[in-house]
Write a structure and sequence with these properties.
The protein is of the alpha/beta class. It contains eleven helices and 14 strands. Bound molecules: phosphoenolpyruvate (PEP) and manganese (II) ion. The site of phosphoenolpyruvate (PEP) has 9 residues, from loops.
């Protein structure tokens, strides 16, 4: 349930409501907005009469939330969430670019990529050190050594780092190197991993599962948030459909739907969304036009020799062109990029 406090409600009034909810068996999550504080209670909602709360001092309204996700719902934080990491804001007016190779391959490769993406205005470098590959015989990633190389290259170029966590035992180690933890499509419903990520205070980039509905994506975010980690960034990376021309079908409509249902930022991944370098640029434009708060794109100095996902990886000149076009689209929708 949600209790919306009146504008100017005092700390005492807010605390009194929290204490009452806690005494009734609720776990309370607080969202402090510019105008209103909203209290999200997770617990025995059927035993509650909202009027009992609406008559309390400082309370504006009280609702039972029927949607299965509560903390991820727009009602909990109507003003929207901005994930702030240092000077970078994800979910604000600037469309943030996260770019880099599918996999970290070598010092030389990651140093080159860092220079290229930083030079074009990306603020975050992506790169997998632990790779979820469909075949056990494919390259599985450089592991911790890859994370070290990526961190060093990122620091030299003033970039943040996002990298994938494949299971909960890797959380402490990857957290030591990365600023954002990526939970990939295959792990979107790895509930142990989601719960453990919820115990951290570190932003999580949560990618939509290959066959997950938008509601399932928001419920996966709810797992993380219910542990108290509210810094979740969602990612539309294409879903599996009957179409075979593209690797996945990039569900651009998921972006405005998520914006309507949730306060969480969402980025678009046109690389995995299409699987084809020649379709990344138009779908990057489409994602930004549809309201994405950022882009996740694969870039490599020599994509034809990349160890993974080369076909969907942009060359440096293509990345430069994408950034130029995305800036024009962002300006058309009142944003910067
Ligand atoms: C990736 O970002 O390299 C990746 C493996 O993505 P996804 O989980 O979307 O397939
Ligand atoms: Mn990839």
């Amino acid at each position: 349930m949600l209790v919306v406090m009146q504008q100017g409600a005092t700390d005492l009034q807010i605390q009194t409501v929290i204490d009452r909810l806690v005494s009734m068996g609720f776990t309370v999550h607080r969202s402090t907005g510019v105008l209103h504080t909203v209290l999200g209670g997770v617990g025995p909602v059927d035993e509650i009469d909202p009027v009992d709360f609406e008559v309390m001092d400082g309370v504006k309204e009280c609702h039972r939330i029927v949607s299965p996700y509560k903390l991820a719902s727009k009602h909990f934080k109507p003003q929207g969430t901005i994930v702030k990491i240092g000077k970078v804001e994800i979910g604000g007016t600037h469309v943030v670019t996260m770019a880099g190779p599918c996999s970290v391959e070598s010092r030389d490769q990651i140093e080159k990529v860092a220079g290229i993406v930083a030079g074009q205005g990306a603020q975050i470098m992506r790169g997998g050190a632990f790779k979820p590959r469909s075949s056990p015989y494919s390259f599985q990633g450089m592991g911790e050594e890859g994370l070290k190389l990526m961190r060093e290259a990122a620091d030299r170029n003033g970039l943040l780092v996002v990298s994938e966590v494949m299971d909960h035992t890797q959380l402490p180690m990857i957290s030591a190197y990365a600023d954002i933890l990526q939970i990939g499509a295959r792990n979107m419903q790895n509930f142990n991993l989601l719960r453990e990520a919820g115990k951290l205070r570190k932003p999580v980039l949560l990618k939509r599962g290959i066959s997950a509905t938008i509601e399932e994506l928001l419920l996966a975010a709810e797992y993380i948030m219910s542990g108290g980690n509210y810094e979740v960034i969602l990612c539309e990376r294409g879903i599996r459909t009957f179409e075979t021309y593209t690797r996945n079908t990039m569900d651009v409509s998921a972006i405005p739907v998520v914006k309507k249902l949730s306060h969480l930022p969402i980025v678009g991944d046109p690389s995995h969304g299409t699987g084809r370098r020649d379709q990344v640029l138009p779908m990057a434009r489409a994602a930004v036009a549809a309201g994405a708060d950022g882009l996740l794109v694969e870039v490599h100095p020599d994509p034809d020799h990349a160890v993974s996902d080369g076909a969907q990886t942009l060359t440096p000149p293509q990345f430069t062109e994408m950034m130029q076009q995305v800036r024009a689209i962002a300006a058309a929708v009142g944003r910067t990029a």
